[in-house]
Amino acid sequence: MSQFALLPNEIRANVFVYLDPHDLFRLRRVSKAVGQELIELTLLFSFAQLNIQIFCADYTSTTTGILNSYCFDNLNWHNLPTIYLEAAILEFGFDSVSPMVNDRYKMEEALWNIINQPVGRIGTRKLRDSEVIEALDFVSKGKDAHLLVKLLAGGQEPSSRLFVNAIKYGNSSMIQALFQAIKTPSECCDVCTFGCYRQVRNQLLALAAKSGNASVFRFLLGCNAVDVSYNNNAALLAAIRYGNYQIAFDILEDSRFNFTAPNNIAREQAILEARAKYKDVYQLLNYFGSSRN
């Protein structure tokens, strides 16, 4: 038994809490006896929270109370237990912590724990509405659609920025999760019409064409309310400009798209760009142009 074991629990916690968070885990590796005493302490949220507060105190302005990012730069979040990241988020705010932690998996794990655990177990509060908005923006750039749904369960309405993020990062499951989370006053509003997001649905189609993710594009193309020729055929031009042959084919094959219509502004531009860059797309355009004349 170590000498530390002879001390009351509250004394041991106060002794260890002033150590650098990394030192706590170095001690566990150096001394097996001390390590046994530390295991329980270092997995307590209250201990991690106080440890983070003390560690970051030197990096916080005494006049403004603003935390300097160097505090988080000096912490190796990859090696620290996730509960330290949870404590940092709830202590300093998600928007302050997330830009400083270059570990998406750990950030998402911390968010899961904060959302799922009762307030009394992990601290004195849940995420504020402003933090949920920032967290949604962060999560929509990743792959965890289930976490996105969990964050939206609090009543937040999906913003167009989340759709744009999901399109940009090519995550079709994220797009579908966002559609399912849309709430509108009108009962007859189908999520596939983007509901109150009519102003962005066609922009999203063009973004999907640019991204090259054919599965996402087809999902959007399947919505009846989508205008395939929106903004002078922006989707077709984006597909051609970035050499996305399959997406260009899907657009041209769509019955709502008339490539040979009079005064089709995009037709000549599309052919010129394709001829200069992508032989396959150029041949495709010529095929559709001649077959529909």
Automatic annotation (TrEMBL):
Q: What is this protein called?
A: F-box domain-containing protein
Q: Which Pfam families match?
A: F-box-like
PROSITE patterns, alphabetized? FBOX
The organism named in the record is: Rhizoclosmatium globosum
F-box domain ranges (all copies): 1-48
The cross-references to CDD domains, in alphabetical order and at most eight, read:
F-box_SF (cd09917)
The signal peptide, as residue positions, is: none
